[in-house]
Amino acid sequence: MEGFFGRINYAFDDKYLLELNGRYDGTSRFLNDVRWRFYPGMSAGWNVHRESFFKPLAKVVNTFKIRGSYGKLGDQSFLDSDPSNPNYYPFYPALGTTRPTSTNWLFGGAQQASVTQPGLVNNELTWVTTSSLNLGLDAAFLDNRLTATFDWYIRRANNFAGPSQVLPLVLGTGVPSANNTDIETRGWELMLNWADRVGEVNYRVRGVLSDYRGQVLRYPNPNMLITNWYSGEMMGNIWGYTTQGYFKTNDEESHSADQSKISAANWTAGDIRYADLNGDGVIDWGNNTLDNTGDRRVIGNSTPRYAYSLITEANWKGFDVYVFLQGIGKRDAWVGSNYFWGIIGDEWQSSPFTVHRDRWSPTNTEGYFPKFYMSGENGKNTQTQTKYLQDASYLRIKNVQLGYTLPAHLISRIKAQKVRMYVSLENLATFTGLVKTMDPELSIGDAKIYPLQRTYSLGLNVSF
What we know:
It is a single chain. By secondary structure, the protein is mostly beta strands. It has helices at residues 338-341, 408-411; strands spanning 4-12, 38-47, 61-75, 96-98, 106-107, 110-111, 114-116, 128-141, 146-162, 178-198, 201-218, 237-241, 243-246, 272-274, 296-301, 305-316, 319-330, 332-333, 390-391, 394-405, 418-432, 455-463. The protein starts with a strand and ends with a strand.
């Protein structure tokens, strides 16, 4: 086959390899034995459009290439899980130190530096092995006016350094990370590009659409606790209660499921009423195991699905326009911070905005936010639940730009090659179902970011 091509490669990865001169570290192996890994890879493709049998389609389909690849790589990103304090040598115990000005102990009339004992370490912690299978297709049609690229992939992280199995509290310290987890991600990406000319107008439209899902394949959680990873879990799942609305009267709770496990305080009008999904007459979390989740269930998933973008460009007689849109087609979000609730039980950190005026009260019984308390009792209404699960999908007009390039005969006197004037507008508009206190692109965590700004700018580009 004339259009076939391929490549095979491999890599040895020994970053942060420590020479121990064969010294035994007290485990069943030498420490340097677990630092080496062999990572093979290969790729192959077939330019189908170059084959003789494809010639009848050549006028319509200009390019048609099938490609695939498979390879393994080492990953040590788990070492940087805390960017402010990366631990590049987690397999060695390290004493904790505190400078004299930060201690609370006086010796000889002055503060002294202190040293704390090291935590537990895992001497056999090693590389995460990521294997990737990719199948792709590249095609061009109609004299290359329409081009398309499609990729489908499976990425698997074997021996991922996940949280260690939960141990009894009598251990007295935390447990180190371990290569105990397998995670698989499946996804795809489609990119389409159309470029053409109508009269004196040149234009181009390019769109990208992608999606992925992640799943835990292996994790040492024999009791299948949903408070930790478990085998078969879809990454990003959100567990919560199902909301039935507000209690309408002060004694309605006495005629419904018992919610005292969530809060022993009285449940009155304006408080949230949760659904008794398992029918036992009590609202609770069961054993927090997959077999007994009580009245909680998976109510959403925070994985950003169907990410898309669209770029449109056109020019005519020196004028040009550029529009960039991007967004997420599907995503759920649970935000438990004061930026969402406004009032969180006391004056400290409570921050009501205009949107929080839509709150339950005796005169506004259909308000969106529940009745509030300036005490810990406020927490009974802010449990993770369906009523306040947010739709974090959005469409944002990211950038709009208009420009004009002066004709060459006007700028030839100043020896310039190009002079372009433009006006640009960043973050023109955002369409989302989120409350207005949050930015769907940046603040899905606790929403505490500097407010997104809309930026207007004028510019002049001159090249000689």
